[in-house]
Design brief:
- There is one protein chain.
- The protein is 29% helix and 20% strand.
- By secondary structure, it is α+β, with helices and mostly antiparallel strands.
- The radius of gyration is 19 Å and the shape is globular.
Amino acid sequence: MASATCRGLPGDWLNSWLAAVGSTVLDSRLRLRWTTEPIPVAVLSVESDEDPLDVLVSAWPTADRLEAMPIAQRHGDLAAMKRIVPVDVFVERARTFRSHPDVWTLSSTVTDLGVYKGGEVAHAPLDPKGPGTIKWLHHRLLKTYRLVENPEDQIRRSLSGRGQRVVDNGLGFDLTRLTTQADGSAKLVDPIIEVLAFFGLALLPVRSSGLDMTLPGVRARPERRQRGWRRDPRWCFEWPVWRQDLDSVAVDALLDVWRDARTHHGRERLGVHAAWRTVGYLARGSNDNTVAYGSERL
């Protein structure tokens, strides 16, 4: 089994964890484990003599694939899909793309189990509202993707920890994209990490309480339940790192059970040797709508 240690993908950084998982989603041959250092880093491997990074480069998505995703703004004669998604638009997309290989882009970003009184569906916590006119996730994904000029070189540099950041908001939830007001508050992201992180969302479907938000006396905001999020006592996303080589199907299974292993010994039996949870960005004032997640170790 050939492996590549990815120093640019530390386990305590939400976006790099998503990017590592997203790599296994992009190509089913890739397997993922994490080193047991104080700050674990991702190790990608394949059951052959191929270079795992060559496999990832070959799996890098095409612009045609991204533009044809079920959450694209426009699809033929279908109603346009923007940030505010009426429930009828969601239903139409779900019916049309039920067998599409990227149908997860619908189920990991919005859910019709939570419908606001205005008739629009609820968004996942990892599908935050963007700044200015770039308010929906697919638009942000395409904008970030177009910043990648040389995928082969940039993938290798980013995964080794030598990636080049560019001015952009990315997917819109990475704390490390924020700079200081002294720097003009420009946001900086590594577009390789952002695109890979988007594919990590494939294993994080969103649900809701299923309550009818149009009924009198029912709270106006649905309680979104994206996989991995829990209230303890605040809403936070929790993620593990593990020591065995897992493909995306095995990672999917591990995410179902690791949190229920209440003891350290129980988690060790599952191969989990560290875990983190998100810490939300604290707004600077009433007009600060920034969404960002840092991390703290469990």
